[in-house]
Write a structure and sequence with these properties.
This protein is 59% helix and 5% strand. With 221 residues, the chain is mainly α. The chain has a three-stranded mixed sheet, with helices on one face. The protein binds zinc ion (ZN). The site of zinc ion has 4 residues, from α5 and α6.
Length: 221
Amino acid sequence: MADKLGVKVQDVPPATFGGSNQSVTEPEFARKMLFTVFLGILQVDAATLGISLTNVNLLDMRHHKQRAKFEKFYMAWTNSATDVYINYEMYEQVAKKFPVTGVTNSVRNTQLWFVLALRHELHHVTQFNTSGRPRSYKAMCDFEKGAYAQDVQWLDANRTLLKNAGMEDAIFTAIRSGNDKAARDMDRISRLGTESAIKAAMVRDSNLPPHANIDELYEDQ
Ligand SMILES: [Zn+2]
């Protein structure tokens, strides 16, 4: 009778488990499990906040070719009109050492912060779908200016929703002022006139990691 109620694991072809019977090490597997749980949290919070994740692939930043550069800089990175890379390492670090004072629940607020970072990236997905990914630093700054400006508008319209989800006032205020400043910074930098001046300012202000050229950042993975 018990056999009829379930499937015996040994009867399931290996391909069922992720399409591969490649062995992975125990730490790799544990890390994959943690990332999957984190994605689940982001997906639930996105649904609660009315953020659609349709037509976007959420990927682990540890598999991005520029991982070594990106993991120190970004909560998430939009690489194309479909692919967004999530920085799990930064999630752990921020939750552990929360950079905003006056917040009681650092883990919950880090999760919500990441959902907002994801929402910002989804604006880039829309931009890339309409205009393609940025081919110049000026275009990148213009995209960022638009993305940060709409972040501020969305935050103002959804403050109560975020509070009900667990976001504390101190982090809301910090994120809002950070986004507002970033929109103004991007506007200023975008007006510098030459590509080399814009690139230098983006790196100097830690908006971009040191890198060779813009194509390197968006290389196909
Ligand atoms: Zn952005």
